[in-house]
Amino acid sequence: MSDKPEQEAPIDAPRKPMFYDPTEHRIRSFVTRAGRLSDAQAKAIEELGPQFMIPYEKQELDLHATFGREAPTIFEIGFGMGETSAKISALMPEKNFIGVEVHTPGVGSLLKLVGAAGLSNQRIIQHDAYEVLVNMIAPESLAGVHVFFPDPWHKARHNKRRLIQGPLVALLSSRLKKGGYIHCATDWEDYAVQMLEVLSAEPSLRNTAEGYAPRPDYRPVTKFENRGLKLGHGVWDLVFEKQ
């Protein structure tokens, strides 16, 4: 129900090391897959990558230099194929957007959309979002964070691989300015329950709604989401603000 490509089946025990980074002592919430890179996506990476992609470095990012202006910056984790990201960037040209995605076809897809729409306020980092946040994003520098339809890891034994966990939420909050927000959305009800519990437990955040929030106007309804809504499937948005 999102604009992301279908998730591959989780990899079981024999290949478990793919998920675990022994240098960080944490379980990764994604599986790196090659995927098929279309000619158009490859061309977008070659032609637009130098302008819109930011190399991962263990060095704090200068947002003013990156965008050539001072503006509120929104950080998105896992933009999939980028349709929602491009629409939001186009809707809010007064804001800067940094999208982080590990999968190359998604990076190429968003770059293609950026080029087609002539967007100047979107940048992309192809790397693990956790490491980007730790090493590149300064404390209290972001105006908002978007996490739309992350992998639900729906099997109970894989729930620990879900992205929205206490340590990450605390890290995200530390990177937000006072009054900044975290906006999550999911179409898996049990993940929505977990998100609500985890976000509510972070003392630096407050819920902007009584439980789940109405979908903010800036988040477009994807074709997959719209199809699910017509079938009676639910979608849950959560919007928490840094106190």
Automatic annotation (TrEMBL):
Binding residues for S-adenosyl-L-methionine: E76, E101, D128, D151
InterPro entries: SAM-dependent_MTases_sf, tRNA_(Gua-N-7)_MeTrfase_Trmb, tRNA_methyltr_TrmB_bact
Keyword 4Fe-4S (UniProt): no
tRNA processing keyword on record: yes
Pathway of action: tRNA modification; N(7)-methylguanine-tRNA biosynthesis
Any GO molecular function: tRNA (guanine(46)-N7)-methyltransferase activity
Role this protein plays: Catalyzes the formation of N(7)-methylguanine at position 46 (m7G46) in tRNA.
Protein's name according to its UniProt entry: tRNA (guanine-N(7)-)-methyltransferase
Species this protein is from: Undibacterium cyanobacteriorum
